[in-house]
Every structure is written in structure tokens, then in C-alpha cells.
UniProtKB/TrEMBL annotation:
This is PAS domain S-box-containing protein. PANTHER family: DIGUANYLATE CYCLASE DGCE-RELATED, DIGUANYLATE CYCLASE DGCP. Residues 2-252 form the EAL domain. SMART domains: EAL (SM00052), PAC (SM00086), PAS (SM00091). Transmembrane segments: none annotated. It holds the Pfam family PAS_3. PROSITE patterns: EAL, PAC, PAS. The lineage of its organism: Bacteria, Pseudomonadati, Acidobacteriota, Terriglobia, Terriglobales. It comes from the Bacteria. Residues 406-476 form the PAS domain. Residues 351-405, 479-531, 611-664 form the PAC domain.
Length: 677
């Protein structure tokens, strides 16, 4: 019978009846396809599809395993032409093959025939394959690794497991056997073994792969445990090469959201001792670094764990909490806390419990804590303890108290404020107004609300005020408008109303906040100032001397009177530069041409010099020349700096001519009186 089976297997190998099937491998976190595992299937002409557990042992016993693996890999590499280049293929290496020195050569040749890159190949080695001749197995495994293939330790935990194997061989992956995965949702021991294997792989920096995932519960639990890759019926059964295009096009199921919605969440997350080592370290760092006080109490209300923040709040070292009951650690509060703790042990979730008591850090003062109690359950839904979170809200409470006092102070301040606060809705209807409005206008609050305030406006100001208010309501721009209101005695006083909108999260106006102030005194001062300015302007324009005022140091003209324009024979325009009136060819009384910095006004604004009357022959824009007398002085600011300059000019051309005529007359008279020699 054995000879017949061996003959049948040889025939099957020669006829290429043993073909590769491809089972999807999926990233648990994203649900994305990462590759396929190559599984051997015998397509028997009479018996149909035969699974490998019936013929792989026979192939190993009859030294046909090498030929079988070679045929299988060549077919798989050829079929991989339709697989995207980022996906991998995983293949099993048997016990006998790992003692065959030609194995790396055969795998390399098979890959070269189909141009399949070996860095896409994962070779799965079982623990038992490393036991017969470990030195030779290690040598061949290292050679396989050196030619580009990745190595995975398959079925870890079901054979003769040894951590030395993980240390000695350059493994890239570790696989959790399907037997643990299938039973982990109902067997606690399987969960712990799976968690330990995944944690070991993560600690060693290995990719973790789980086999036998048949439902979403398995996937959820493995994801929570930190497993990377999964395969099983949930993601697809093994299929022949001709089904690869359909498999690739099929959308893989997505992983569970942040929290699983399946019954598996009753067992997740598992107890901390089952979590991978590096994740435990991370959680411990988060636990101790949290700004919130955290602890875990067992059913006897003893502290099992306490973070640093809670120890600081209680002003008691962490070690002094552990193993002691709440009544021993907090004797002054235990009586108040125990009823809530008992309710939590009965399964009730208690949140935002506000407790005030003596401050451990400041004797004689009190502190306020916000406490939450969350029952912790095991996989059987039994409450095994209480997770406690404590937030110190003492500072917040003090701020709230200070805010209340501040609001009270503000209310009194508003009542004493000479301005009149008011609010209006988004359509401009007044909602509230200070009682001072009634004191100023005689109009009660009820009469003022809505648009009743218009009743006390001066008839001449209503149209302008409402138009301004309408524009602001339409555009959202702040309001700033002045109008007159009627007082109780019938007199009119000027008021200034200002307001700005408040908007919601999407930018819509929901309220207007404003104030009204009495500006009657300011208006009177402004009117008096206008009259004074008018009188000064009349004097400025009437003086027989030309006056020009400029700013320093630019020389920009601020103002000039008509007499200055007449003397200079050119308009004196505000904002014009004084240099535009300076023409080449002007000479002083000594007969030399004036340079720009020698003019009296230039010396006043640049050097701060006050000049006496100086005469010079001025070259006008029209080319004529006129004798002028100029006096200049600086204008200083509050700090003594030169802020501008004032120039006073007189036309002395006629006086010069009369003087010259007089001199000429004297000269002639002198000549006529002198006797001839």
C-alpha cells in the first residue's frame, strides 16, 4: 500500500497535479492585503482536492519533498505575475528541507525563472525543523536570509519552544498557531498564551502574524493585543492561481473601529499582565505621567496601583498606598467615599462626583476634587475592582468664586458708569438697557425696548441715525453715531452711541453690545474751538505778512495764508513741499547765491535756529525777482523736539527801490554841493 501511495505521489509530481493555493494575509489595523501564504493542494484525478496533511508527510519520508517544494514555488512565482509588487508570498519549509544544503540554491533558481524578487518571499520554519541538526539548520537559515528572503517562526508555542531559537536565528516574523486563535475568545489560557507570544514578538521587534482568524471577535481581540497580520476564513479561504484576480479585486473587511462593537469587547482590553511588554511600559509611562490622579481598588477597597499624581494629591507616597484600604489611607474621607465605592462594586458607573475636604498640603484650607468610579470587569463580566480617576478642581473653584465676585463688582461698576450699556438682537431690536437711560431721557426701560428709543431722538437726527444703524445691521460693521436726545426737562443733549456685534461659531451675528454716552460738553467745547479757529483763521488771512507753516524735517507745507501766495506769486498748497517754492538764482544781500540749507526756514526746521529778519532777492516761478525779508522759527513738541517751522515773509521790493532812489538823490546832492577842484 505504501508503495502505491509513493508511486501515486511521484506520478502527481510529474503531472503537476500538486498546485499552489493562495490564502490572503491582511494587516489587522487597516484591513489592507499584505500578501498570500502558499498552500499545497493535490488536484487528484479521482479523489479531487487532497489537503497537504495527507501527502506532505509521505513526501518527507520518500525524499520527494524537495521536488514538491520546487514545483510548488515555480508555479507560485509564475502566478505571482498578476500580484502587485508590494505584496509578499509566504511558503513553508519542512523539517527535512532545512538539512538540505542545496535548498537556498533551488529556491533562488525557482525565483529567477519567473523574475520573482526574493525580498518578497517569506519562508516559514517550524520549531521542530530546528531540532534535528540545529547547527546545519542555522547555517541554511542564515544563507536563506542572506539571499534576500525573510524568515518566520511558524506555529510558535505548540512544539518544543525555545527562546534560544529566536535569539540564534535571524527571524523577521513570529506566527501564532491557529489552535490558540480559535479558542482565545472562550478560553482564558489561550488568550494569555496568544498575548504572551504577541508581546514577545513585539518586544523583539518581530512582525506578529496570527493564523486561524474565523470571525471578527478573533480579529478585534488580536488587534487589541497588538498583533500585526492576520489570516483565516474571515479574510478568505485558500484559492487556486486562476482565482487570484478576483481575490485581489475583492474588498477586504475593515478592522474594528476604536472600540469593538462585538461581544468580544467584554474581554478587552485584557488584564495588564497579558499585554505585550513594550505596550505595558508605554501604558505605565502614560499612567504615571497623566495629569489626573489614577488608581485601581480591588473588591476589598485596597489600593492595587496608584499613579504619582494621585499620590501627590493625597500628599502620601505611592508605596504607602499599596495594599492598604481607603479607610486606612484617607480616614477623614472614607465614610463619605464608601457609599459611592460600594455602588461602583455593584456595577454602577459614577462620574463627576464633587467632593470638598481638608487640603493635605495646606492645613486649615479646603480643596475640591472631581472623582469618577468605573467598575472593572473580567472576561466573565464579574466586577473585580474599581478604576478611580481624580481631578483637583480647587483652582477652578477659586477662579469661579473670583469670577462671581468680579461679576458683582462689574455690576456695581456698570451702575456707576456714566455711560449707558445696552444690548440688541441681530435685527437691531433693543433687548436691554441700563436704568441710567431713564435718568437721562425720562423713557422707561419697557418704553425703550425694541425701537422705542427712537421716540426721544431729535427729528433732524432720526433719518441719519437709522440709516447708520441699518448699514451696520446689514454689513456687521461696528456702529458709531451721534444724535441729540430729549431730556426730562425738554432740553436736547448730544449723545454718542457705539456698538459691536457678537457672532456664533459660523460667523452669524447673534447679539449687539453697545453703550451711549453724553457728549454735550464735548460738543460745546468743539463748537467753541471751531469759533476760535475761525477767528484765528481770519486773523491769519488778514495779516499783511506772508506766513507759511511746515512740518519737520520734511518741509511739507501744513498751511499758508493768501499774503504768502501774493508775495511768492504762486499758490501755497497744503501737503506741498516747501522746496517747490525755492528757485535757483536767489541771492542774499551780500550778493552770493543762497544754497538750500541757508534759507531761514531750512535752518529753523533742520537746526532749530530762530532767525532774525534777513533780506534776499527771490527768484519767482515766473522769472521775476523780488526783494524779500524773511524771519523763521522752529515749532517744538512736548519733549522739546523740532516738530515744524514758521516762516514770515514781507515784500520789501518797493522799500528797496525807494531806499535806492534816496541814496541816489543824496549822492547827486553831494556832488552838486562839492566845489570843483
Amino acid at each position: 500500500m505504501a508503495d502505491e501511495k509513493q508511486f501515486d505521489l511521484r506520478r502527481a509530481l510529474d503531472a503537476n497535479e500538486i498546485i499552489p493555493y493562495f490564502q490572503p494575509m491582511v494587516e489587522l489595523r487597516t484591513g489592507k492585503l499584505t500578501g498570500f501564504e502558499i498552500l499545497a493542494r493535490w488536484r487528484h484525478p479521482q479523489r479531487g482536492i487532497i489537503h497537504p496533511d495527507e501527502f506532505i508527510p509521505l513526501a518527507e519520508q520518500t525524499d520527494l519533498i524537495g521536488q514538491l517544494t520546487g514545483n510548488l514555488l515555480r508555479s507560485a512565482f509564475a502566478a505571482a505575475a498578476v500580484i502587485p509588487p508590494h505584496l509578499t508570498l509566504a511558503a513553508n519549509i519542512s523539517l527535512t528541507q532545512l538539512t538540505d544544503r542545496t535548498l537556498p540554491h533551488h529556491i533562488r533558481n525557482a525565483a529567477q525563472q519567473s523574475n520573482f524578487p526574493l525580498d518578497r518571499l517569506i519562508l516559514e520554519i517550524t520549531e521542530s525543523a530546528l531540532l534535528g541538526n540545529p547547527e546545519l539548520a542555522y547555517l541554511i537559515a542564515h544563507e536563506l536570509k542572506e539571499q534576500g528572503s525573510r524568515l518566520a517562526l511558524d506555529d510558535f508555542g505548540i512544539g518544543y519552544s525555545s527562546l534560544r531559537q529566536l535569539q540564534a536565528l535571524p527571524f523577521d516574523e513570529i506566527k501564532v498557531d491557529a489552535s490558540f486563535v480559535r479558542s482565545m475568545t472562550f478560553t482564558r489560557e489561550s488568550r494569555k498564551i496568544a498575548a504572551a507570544i504577541i508581546g514577545l514578538g513585539n518586544s523583539l521587534g518581530l512582525l506578529t502574524v496570527a493564523e486561524g482568524i474565523e470571525d471578527q471577535n478573533h480579529a478585534d481581540m488580536l488587534l487589541w493585543l497588538g498583533c500585526d497580520i492576520g489570516q483565516g476564513y474571515l479574510y478568505g479561504r485558500a484559492a487556486p492561481a486562476e482565482d487570484l484576480p478576483a481575490t485581489l479585486a475583492q474588498r477586504m473587511p475593515s478592522p474594528a473601529p476604536d472600540l469593538p462593537s462585538t461581544p468580544a469587547d467584554a474581554t478587552m482590553p485584557l488584564r495588564l499582565e497579558a499585554l505585550p511588554t513594550h505596550r505595558l511600559a508605554q501604558l505605565h509611562a502614560i499612567y504615571d505621567g497623566a495629569p489626573v490622579g489614577l488608581c485601581f481598588l480591588d473588591r476589598n477597597l485596597r489600593y492595587v496601583s496608584v499613579n504619582k499624581r494621585l499620590a501627590e494629591m493625597n500628599n502620601i507616597p505611592v508605596a504607602s498606598h499599596l495594599g492598604r484600604t481607603v479607610s486606612e489611607v484617607l480616614p477623614g474621607l472614607a465614610a463619605r467615599l464608601e457609599p459611592y465605592l460600594r455602588r461602583a462594586l455593584d456595577g454602577e458607573v459614577i462620574t463627576e462626583l464633587e467632593l470638598t475636604g481638608p487640603d493635605p498640603h495646606q492645613p486649615g484650607r479646603h480643596c475640591t476634587r472631581l472623582v469618577s468610579y468605573q467598575p472593572a470587569r473580567d472576561e466573565a463580566e464579574e466586577v473585580i475592582g474599581i478604576s478611580v480617576a481624580v481631578v483637583d478642581i480647587t483652582a477652578r473653584k477659586r477662579v469661579e468664586q473670583a469670577l462671581a465676585e468680579s461679576e458683582d463688582h462689574y455690576r456695581h461698576t456698570v451702575e456707576l458708569n456714566p455711560q449707558v450699556p445696552w444690548t440688541a438682537d441681530s435685527k437691531g431690536m433693543v433687548l436691554d438697557v441700563s436704568h441710567r437711560w431713564q435718568e437721562l431721557t425720562g423713557l422707561s426701560r419697557e418704553e425703550t425696548l425694541g425701537d422705542g428709543w427712537i421716540k426721544v431722538l431729535h427729528p433732524d437726527d432720526i433719518q441719519h441715525t437709522l440709516a447708520t444703524w441699518s448699514v451696520s445691521l446689514r454689513t456687521g460693521q461696528p456702529v458709531d453715531v451721534e444724535y441729540r436726545t430729549r431730556r426730562r426737562d425738554g432740553s436736547w443733549r448730544w449723545m454718542r452711541a457705539r456698538a459691536a456685534p457678537r457672532r456664533n461659531a459660523i460667523g452669524e451675528i447673534i447679539r449687539w453690545y453697545g453703550s451711549v454716552e453724553d457728549i454735550e460738553d464735548r460738543k460745546r467745547v468743539e463748537e467753541a474751538l471751531r469759533r476760535s479757529e475761525a477767528r484765528l483763521q481770519a486773523i491769519f488771512d488778514a495779516v499783511p505778512v506772508g506766513i507759511i507753516i511746515t512740518e519737520a524735517p520734511t518741509g511739507r507745507i501744513l498751511m499758508g495764508n493768501p499774503q504768502a501766495e501774493r508775495i511768492l506769486r504762486h499758490p501755497v498748497i497744503p501737503h506741498q513741499m516747501i522746496d517747490s517754492h525755492r528757485r535757483p538764482g536767489s541771492i542774499n544781500s551780500d550778493g552770493h547765491e543762497l544754497k538750500p540749507g541757508e534759507y531761514p526756514l531750512a535752518r529753523a526746521i533742520l537746526q532749530g535756529e530762530t532767525t532774525s529778519a534777513e533780506e534776499f532777492l527771490y527768484q519767482s516761478h515766473d522769472g521775476s525777482r523780488t526783494w524779500l525779508s524773511a524771519t523763521a522759527a522752529p515749532v517744538r513738541g512736548q519733549n522739546g523736539e523740532v516738530a515744524g517751522g514758521v516762516l514770515a515773509i514781507q515784500d520789501i521790493n518797493e522799500a528797496k527801490r525807494e531806499k535806492q532812489d534816496l541814496l541816489d538823490l543824496v549822492s547827486r546832492l553831494k556832488c552838486s554841493l562839492d566845489p570843483p577842484e
